[in-house]
């Protein structure tokens, strides 16, 4: 933001947006101010081109959102875990969507081992995925194809991490209806794609890990 002119223009845009919504539904903000009842939790990348509400065509109040660089879910990240806990136990969302995207700068930096400073430490989590799947990535072909595949594998790994959190495990154990999905978004066509991983129980999580030996903390198959 380079000056108060820029801020003024943002505030003006906000007033126009609020006025347009109130015109079409005079009670809109009154209702929202009283409660939010989102059905979904979105865990996505901070990338400015991947805004959850717009992509899904949802209004404020319809989706609870957590975003960080490269949509990483780590078991020691109190910020992300708190979002998941509040969403599952208080808001009682029915679906958690982990969404990555092709062309992700964070995944690309990890893939190409670029150095940007402090953030390199955060992106080590993406490199862990890369190392775990090095054979599959090598077989994917061109470096562009490998990067696209790494974007997908990274989403799948983070989706598994969500399923492994104590919050989701506890919810499944007490029979709460809760699904966790892995999706990827195309910057070049605006389309969300399901990566074939949706889990609604610990058994589903275990089955996925059994059939994907390179998945995070997969148990060794009995010989
Ligand atoms: Zn990204």
Structure description:
The protein is of the alpha/beta class and 223 residues long. The protein contains 10 helices and 5 strands. The chain has a 5-stranded mixed beta sheet with strand order 2-1-3-4-5. Helix 5 packs across helix 6. The chain starts with a helix and ends in a 12-residue tail after the last helix. The C terminus is likely disordered. The site of zinc ion (ZN) has 7 residues, from helix 5.
Summary keywords:
single chain, 223 residues, alpha/beta, Beta-carbonic Anhydrase, Chain A, five-stranded mixed β-sheet, 10 helices, binds zinc ion
What is the strand and helix layout of this fold?
Blueprint: H1 4-24, H2 28-34, E1 40-45, H3 52-56, E2 63-68, H4 78-90, E3 95-101, H5 105-112, H6 119-132, H7 134-138, H8 143-164, H9 166-173, E4 179-185, E5 192-199, H10 202-211
Parallel strand pairs: 1-2, 1-3, 3-4
Antiparallel strand pairs: 4-5
Helix pairs in contact: 5-6
The structure holds zinc ion (ZN).
Residues 45, 47, 70, 101, 104-106 line the site of zinc ion.
Bound molecules: zinc ion
Distance between the termini: 60 Å
Strand tally: 5
Number of domains: 2
What does the radius of gyration come to? 19 Å
CATH topology of the largest domain: Beta-carbonic Anhydrase, Chain A
* Strand numbers in spatial order across the main sheet: 2-1-3-4-5
The CATH architecture assignment of the largest domain turns out to be: 3-Layer(aba) Sandwich
In short:
With 223 residues, this protein is α/β, with parallel strands linked by helices.
